[in-house]
Amino acid sequence: MRFIGTQLDMSSFRQARLEDCVFSECSLRQADLRQTTLSSTDMRGSDLSEANFNGAILDNADLRDATLLGLDVTQLTSFEGLKVSADQLTDIVRPLGIRVFPRAR
């Protein structure tokens, strides 16, 4: 399945198996992705603001340059090998209690 630049705000994919799918440059604001398997899914550049990922599997998913506002990795079932951009790290690790600082010179 491939979605390129598609408006999918508030869509429900709950419990779907979407391995190896492409959601490139899509808007998935407030989408219901609970218990969804998104292994090896390409979501680069998509807006995932406030999407519900509780219980989702994001193993080897590519979220580089995606908007991740509200993503709580502690609510994921698994995220081994998750790909993110360096500037997304702060938002990803915040729920784990980790603070990221710029390199000291």
UniProtKB/TrEMBL annotation:
SUPFAM superfamilies: Pentapeptide repeat-like (SSF141571). Gene3D superfamilies: E3 ubiquitin-protein ligase SopA (2.160.20.80). Pfam families: Pentapeptide_4 (PF13599). Coiled coil: none annotated. This is Pentapeptide repeat-containing protein. It comes from Pelagibacterium flavum.
